[in-house]
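Render this sequence as a predicted structure.
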Amino acid sequence: MSVDTIIRGGTLITPKGELNGSIAIDNGEIVTIGNPDTLPEASETIDASELLVLPGVVDPHVHIDDMFSVDSYETATAAAAVGGTTTYIDFAWQAWVGELSIWEKEGTLLEGIERKQQKGEDALIDYSLHGAITREDPTVFEEIPDVIDAGVTSFKMFTAYEHGLSNGFMNLAMQQIAEEDAVGVCHTEDPSICATLTEKFQEEGKGDPEWYPESRPDYAEAMAAEDAVRMAQEAGMKYYGIHTTCRKSADILEHFQEDESLVRGETCTHYCTLDDSIYAEMGTLPMIAPPIRKEDDIEAMFEHLQNGCLSVVSTDHCGYRLDQKQTDNWWESAFGANALQTSLSVFYDEAVNRREHSPSFVVRMMATNPARTFGLTRKGTLEPGTDADIVLFDPEETHTITSEDNLSKAEFSIYEGRDVTGRVKKTLVRGEVVAEDGDVVSDPGHGQFIHREIPDWE
């Protein structure tokens, strides 16, 4: 017997610890792990000496090729591959008509799935989708079973923006999602507080970016989170709190988890590494919603990641040009920033080198937990019988992040000039090397849409 590839000589990082061994890969799948002397012959051998061998990052929160990102699937997945992400979950939008919309007429979730799958034909890495409910039209409830049959088993809802939902409609939506045992993903900010403060600052001429985080305060996030989690609990719905930014909001999630309810929470790399002084430093470029918070909120993110209240670290990647971000007043700027190419290195450096967490901690937060949370049963692990999505990572190499290296169409980086130790050297997706030493080495189209099953959260 022979296999396609053997990865030899590295330190394997699992969710539970480290081990020395080699990985045999055949037909895109990990077939066995063991001593190199006992493994079969291989057509190709990859030397991972002095490197960490990680399961590929699973990013459950990205925006690609829509009103919140100029990236195509080709450019976004190139950035992801170079950065060690092997699967991401994007959004299939229910089309709405409005100022933020790119559509001229309303549409369905199933149409949104079809649109993104067409775009995904150029993907370099694997991807899946959340269904995004954007209108208070009860006919969307009739779509939910068909959307799940199409492999999309999670539904995004917003409390803010023009596509935000009222508590009344969201309550009904959660009941329908719960009936199907699917996952509800919620962006929580109280819209009236954010709108009122924004209007106040506009009237006062407070257009400097330092005022931006004051317009979307932490208590507005916490208030909306409490309403959403309580409704989810009453409905019996699996609740996933997206991009948690602050202690107040994380504490709400923890409170509702005390009875082992079906509540999960995510934060993002930028909320774990940056504080609101960045607005004075970089202006409107780091304008993200909800905003980057205080130093104590960074501490809270790690406290809650360690105690299990938060269990996933994502990017909330949005690719923007400079002209979309750099404006005279902060309220004229687009929300969002890119991070797919840098997230693993930045979070690893912060968690392992600066805070003395283990590499296994990084694997849990960025690969294993997101895969399990969203039913990606073949992802986020090095276990035999799963997809050979693997990252070779040099824990000793130091480099400086610069937007000049961007493979995303984004023209800046909120980590510009940051020195980090730890760098992706090689990325494999289903056994094929797609990126090596900062370059894409495979053709667009290798990535596949992943049809997800209903996840088991027990």
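Summary. Residues 2-54+384-395+419-440 form a domain with the Urease, subunit C; domain 1 fold (CATH 2.30.40.10). Residues 210 and 279 are 5 Å apart (CA to CA).
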